[in-house]
Write a structure and sequence with these properties.
Chain lengths: ~240, ~220
């Protein structure tokens, strides 16, 4: 059994069918890059896996837990999959440390001291141990995104979903975030990431998914996908990069 | 103009003023605290609450915002006894102020909630928080921070509006002023002094609310 099983998932917004039957199985420890043109449904797919969008057909399960749209099942699923957003979405009224502590205390009922311990450890892990008391607006974009990663990690998820997590960053801040992700990958974290960083996808990912018009158009190991694109759409897409 | 000002009555009547002041302060505190709480609850209901609750809250808010405070007060004090609900004048005054501030506060707080970036709700959800938990721990404080100046002004307005409760013989500051001028026939002086007290009270209340804001909301680098 795979860690994440996405089976025949369809998603419509009104008349607009955005996902037209997606099938992907993710094994534990895999790092999957999702690439594709704007509007191809990459974000929607990630959001469905996390239950931020409901699916119209098909099924999604994570470590055996089925995605069902009631709060109890959603919570169980979200404890297993963390999500990192393009816009960081840190809580502006809480310090970095409190950002990482909050959901542990509220959702897992972790005692404060323990949550604080965990927050320190996770901030340490993303290289921000010294920023525990800083507020989000006192941090650079790269630092904010690393706090967001620490916040997700503190819930001890078995997989992380990353939606263009470096796209809102100034170019010089991209690498510090990618370095953290690379580190996570090497520690065996299962990652699904929508990304435009083709070099990163090539170097770090175990598989690449190319989405086109709501379908998985090509899927394979990065060396194959990048070196020998089979479809004209992927050829064109890769040609457009750089 | 040969009117001779005379503040001699102050010697005799200051305890009356003081008592009126105390009651106005009490009405403002109770009305402020519970009114804001009611406003937050209603704002939640209107912005994020269950669908069936929304029209009920909307009806309440629109009813209060489109009728005079004095009529609301009379309704509670003189009208409700017909239904067997008999309130003392202070209880009625408190209730009227809570209900009034609740409705205006609802609209102000709702604006703050609606200005919340969608990503905040999604971040809360993706961390496993329920909708209520996300509202309470993530959305509310920044929402209040956004509208704090407007909410503070509304609280001051309600404090000043509390003068109306003298009409149901609640012995507030305005009641005291009326009482004194009817006894001493020193209308100018009585209202001048009470005006000064209201002014001082309003300024103090604004300062207090500003201080509360500072302690409620974290210091940010922007300040
Ligand atoms: N909440 C929504 N309501 C209606 N339509 C939506 C919604 N979210 C996404 N869509 C539509 O679904 C399609 C896929 O959007 P999605 O955000 O998944 O694309 P994407 O591949 O992530 O694109 P990008 O690279 O620009 O982020 C688009 O046509 C978009 O307009
Ligand atoms: Mg997207």
């Amino acid at each position: 059994m795979s860690l994440i099983e996405i089976t025949e998932v369809k998603k419509r917004f009104g008349d607009n069918e955005v996902l037209k039957g997606i099938n992907i199985d993710v094994e534990p420890g895999e790092v999957i890059a999702i690439i594709g043109k704007s509007g191809s449904g990459k974000s929607t797919l990630l959001r469905c896996i996390n239950g931020l969008e409901t699916i119209d057909e098909g099924s999604i399960s994570v470590a055996g837990a089925q995605l069902l749209p009631d709060e109890l099942h959603l919570k169980a699923l979200r404890l297993k999959v963390g999500m990192i957003f393009q816009q960081f979405n840190l809580f502006p009224h809480l310090s970095a440390g409190k950002n990482v502590m909050l959901s542990q205390m509220v959702v897992k009922k972790t005692p404060k001291a323990e949550a604080e311990e965990m927050a320190k450890k996770m901030l340490e892990r993303v290289g921000l141990g010294h920023k525990f008391d800083a507020y989000p607006d006192q941090l650079s974009g790269g630092q904010q995104q690393r706090v967001a990663i620490a916040r997700a990690l503190a819930m001890e998820p078995i997989a992380l979903l990353c939606d263009e997590i470096t796209s809102a960053l100034d170019p010089e801040l991209v690498n510090e975030v990618l370095a953290v992700v690379k580190e996570l990958a090497s520690e065996g974290m299962t990652l699904l990431m929508v990304t435009h960083e083709m070099r990163f996808a090539r170097d770090v990912c175990s598989r690449v998914v190319f989405m086109h018009m709501g379908r998985v158009h090509e899927i394979g190991r990065p060396e194959d996908v990048f070196a020998n694109p089979k479809t004209p759409e992927l050829k064109q897409f890769l040609g457009m990069q750089h | 103009m040969n009117y001779a000002f005379d503040y001699g009555w102050l010697l005799e009547y200051w305890p009356v003023l003081l008592k009126g002041l105390a009651i106005t302060v009490e009405l403002t505190l109770v009305g402020g605290v519970f009114g804001v709480a009611l406003g937050v609850a209603c704002a939640w209901a209107r912005a994020l609450g269950p669908k069936w609750l929304r029209p009920i809250v909307t009806t309440y808010v629109e009813m209060i915002r489109n009728t005079p405070f004095l009529i609301q007060l009379f309704f509670i004090f003189f009208g409700l006894p017909s239904l067997g609900v008999r309130l003392g004048e202070l209880e009625a005054a408190n209730l009227a102020m809570i209900i009034n501030l609740g409705a205006y506060g609802c609209e102000i707080v709702r604006a703050g909630i609606q200005a919340t970036p969608k990503g905040q709700f999604e971040a809360g959800a993706s961390l496993g928080m329920s909708r209520i938990q996300t509202f309470w721990y993530v959305v509310l404080i920044p929402a209040l921070q956004r509208i704090w100046p407007a909410l503070s002004s509304q609280i001051v307005i309600v404090m000043l509006g509390s003068a109306a409760v003298s009409q149901i013989a609640a012995e507030d500051l305005t009641f005291a002023a009326n009482f004194i001028q009817s006894r001493t026939f020193r209308a100018f002086e009585a209202y001048f002094v009470s005006t000064a007290i209201y002014l001082a009270l309003a300024i103090a209340l604004r300062q207090m609310l500003r201080g509360l804001g500072w302690s409620l909301f974290p210091k940010r680098s922007g300040r």
